[in-house]
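Exercise 7. Given the components listed, write out the predicted structure of the assembled complex. Treat all entries as one system.
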Amino acid sequence: MIAFLGPEGTFSQAAALAVAGPDAELTGYASVTLAIDALRAREVDGAVVPLENSVEGAVPATLDELAGPASPLVIAAETFLPVVFDLLVRPGTAMAGIATIATHPHAEAQVRRYLLTELPGREVALLGSTAGGAQAVANGEYDAAVAPAIAGELYGLQTLAHDIADAHGAVTRFVLLRQPAPPAAPTGNDRTTLVTYLAEDHAGALLEILTEFGARGINLTRIESRPTKGRIGDYCFSIDCEGHIADARVGDAVAALHRVCADVRYLGSYARGDGRVAPIDPRRSDRSFSDAADWLARIRDTGVA
Amino acid sequence: MIAFLGPEGTFSQAAALAVAGPDAELTGYASVTLAIDALRAREVDGAVVPLENSVEGAVPATLDELAGPASPLVIAAETFLPVVFDLLVRPGTAMAGIATIATHPHAEAQVRRYLLTELPGREVALLGSTAGGAQAVANGEYDAAVAPAIAGELYGLQTLAHDIADAHGAVTRFVLLRQPAPPAAPTGNDRTTLVTYLAEDHAGALLEILTEFGARGINLTRIESRPTKGRIGDYCFSIDCEGHIADARVGDAVAALHRVCADVRYLGSYARGDGRVAPIDPRRSDRSFSDAADWLARIRDTGVA
Amino acid sequence: MIAFLGPEGTFSQAAALAVAGPDAELTGYASVTLAIDALRAREVDGAVVPLENSVEGAVPATLDELAGPASPLVIAAETFLPVVFDLLVRPGTAMAGIATIATHPHAEAQVRRYLLTELPGREVALLGSTAGGAQAVANGEYDAAVAPAIAGELYGLQTLAHDIADAHGAVTRFVLLRQPAPPAAPTGNDRTTLVTYLAEDHAGALLEILTEFGARGINLTRIESRPTKGRIGDYCFSIDCEGHIADARVGDAVAALHRVCADVRYLGSYARGDGRVAPIDPRRSDRSFSDAADWLARIRDTGVA
Amino acid sequence: MIAFLGPEGTFSQAAALAVAGPDAELTGYASVTLAIDALRAREVDGAVVPLENSVEGAVPATLDELAGPASPLVIAAETFLPVVFDLLVRPGTAMAGIATIATHPHAEAQVRRYLLTELPGREVALLGSTAGGAQAVANGEYDAAVAPAIAGELYGLQTLAHDIADAHGAVTRFVLLRQPAPPAAPTGNDRTTLVTYLAEDHAGALLEILTEFGARGINLTRIESRPTKGRIGDYCFSIDCEGHIADARVGDAVAALHRVCADVRYLGSYARGDGRVAPIDPRRSDRSFSDAADWLARIRDTGVA
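Answer.
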């Protein structure tokens, strides 16, 4: 059983089907927090939640659940879904008839300029999900919903305007969270997610961290300083890097971080889902690492390579 | 006239008074976007908006308005406000009588576990501001609001539970935005905000950026990769660093970034508001820079120092 | 008048003609030290001395005269000469008749294995110059000299074996030293020589120095730690880098070194003499530097670029 | 049997006694090359040769024998000897009676200014060792020798002037070379010697090498670019660093160099002989490395630390 951010008709459901397979049994939860709680309580086997959006950036609720003090979880897979929002109404409603609009805060952020221009002055209610907004429109609580088309179909609404996001081509990255387990074998095109906690606040602490990646030819694909729930300025870094924890260069870099950081939390290695392929410098291949280790062992044993 | 995130009774109003002075004329706007729009339209002289929160992290709406393609604005000042949320009700309401709760999404994120524990299963409505939630409770639309105590006083509500945030001691950083203007003179303890856009996606692009700061002894106090509104993976970095653009070391570092990055946007230098003092390495003082420049000029002119 | 490492018939004389022009008046001195002393005493206008050899490495006498506490001199030009040593004898002498061999220590180092193999057990006298060895053979003091063919011609000797160096293709780099003066204009393919004295002995002091070059895309073509005439371990670094002190990226790097090092001594910028061309990263061109400086000035003046 | 740079009475003999113990059997050779050849031919068990001098810098003959293509040798121990040169004459000779002076080229370099000032214009013969100079004076071939006092005692000479070096306090570092063998166990205050050959000539190749040391908190105590016996500009780097190949941080750095360099030659780990103690950053201790390796193994096996 896989948790997703319900109700039915959200992008999260489509993502859950994409990442967990069309036969997966799904169950909706009202928030990221509740879905993750269900996973931690072992009521479900996995939880599909949004991690970042190409317009809005990271999803704090997800990042902070992963980085926080509660029991560890890992990312087992990722998928990227295009995000297309429609303006949905009950059949017969025209633009002029819209006084109230319901949607989710992240959706609202992505259609903000459209609403200011096309529907200025209307009341916008922020609900827990876009599908919930569509449902509320079907129930007559609001006049229009900003939601994916699938939600309109589910609740018998009509599309009054299609793809209304201020920035077209938005994509949301969803991840499948699981209880910690050995990661799937490397595919050759993987991603690894980490949180690093800084030992001290000195010029160059972050530089030190990045040097460990750079010296091993490992690209970062996302980095964010995150407050550690204390005073602003006490940061950790949430990091995605190319490669798999089983890759020699990644394991070596992560072990180095463990030495120089106050703490490092491993959040999973999984096949990259964005269709990008990162070539590996031959000087940083597994073969290069094992050759160097063998060479060092010979020198330590005999004094000569 | 200074815009703030209205209505009255929000932290944003308190922040606006703190940063713009007790005599400033304030005017409330319903969202960060509207407040910034008013500044861009020159309807107001400044806008006080939240930039980051010690629990939730950066405020995407603010960051993206500053980094985006619209006309440039700069940060002229910052202030840090403790964030204390109360559970506010109409006089006479008890816990058992609460079926619906209204608050702002950022506040909801900070009291999420409290609500799950103490008020499980209640409907939570996400509104545009916490004060708006208090007002709606006063109007009888909801049973309880999660909002600062000042909002309760303003709308005649009672505190049923005080300081209910999951993490106590939360702080929000507010900034005063203005039209671009020469920055105030350095105070000796300043902060500078930038956005850097990467020329290419290679291992070490970020390392290159950080090296320019590290080599000049400049600490970063915040860094976030932000999507540039296109495909996920095309990032810019939103950066706060210690020091003032008029400081030699900061100007030198920022000019170096201009050379190596696709683009750099300067977002202001202003007195640091968090009470932290960062000592300056004497080797990176203004005096050290002017000595080195004089020395270089002598060598270029005469062949000897 | 240009000093060279006399007597006539040495590589140094050929180098002096190459670097100072065929019409230059030359005067020979018995050692590098004496030639440089003559320049410091303004008895000559320049001194042509060897700086490094592709087999033996740096010439300490030259490096230390340039780095030491005496009055500063600068390198005004460089040239590279192939080094070919012959075994020179008086007409009629055969291999079997050689009991004693005269040469200069640097030449001896380059033919050491040849002598051990072909003339084992012979006495080798180390003199102040290879030409001096040829002269001494002509005088009957020794049986054979290891010296350039030109010395054999000058002193009436015969070549018994040609090009006897252990490593063929050796090259010596000679430099023309002068009193400090404004360097010649950049040619677009120049070299700059420096000595940097370290402020402290910490892991990364050298890394710090190299970062200033690397961050500006400047290749080093030679680096050597040199004792500062005190306890071993108190080092300075003798450095050659690509580019000219008048180039923005080089001047900027050198000024940065002045800030982070205990001391920096500039030893000249001059046209590169080894026929190698180093392309300049457009991000580090003079244009890129002046654009960045203009951009910074606009921001400091107006708050916007 | 241990080879040293004979004849008796040289600093090299004193160094050989210091490093090989007072009971070691010693045998003198006429040059560094011959002593090392004897070791390679297994005629001796070790060879004590000078590696660097606090005034003159590295000894090229030694460095190049170690870095070159011949069969590998390793440094098994080092010792530092103060270098004090006296002006030695046959009893009865006065300053005015000195027309010719004999010494070794390295000694000549260290007393050059003294001779120019006190004995200007005298002929200086450069021989294979300072003791050989003393012997030649005793034999009547020259009038004075520049050599250590011990050589004067051995050959019945008198000290006419004591400690005549231009820079007082000079020290020479001697090393005991042996056939490759497992290094002695770490003492906690060791040094490791390496030669690294660069894969390519790009801005930052050396920076890359130094980063591997710097990122592991390892100080370099000597670095020299050396020509690889080909065209000037094709360099290798001769490096001394703190620590022992058996230390986790050193082995890890050296293995990293093996991955990024064209070649790395290990030249031994041995107790540091200069009396300096380098504290080890606890983040780079063996314990820190084994903790990190264990932590990584747990993550790879189970997905959680």
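Discussion: The longest helix of chain B spans residues 286-302. The radius of gyration of chain B is 23 Å.
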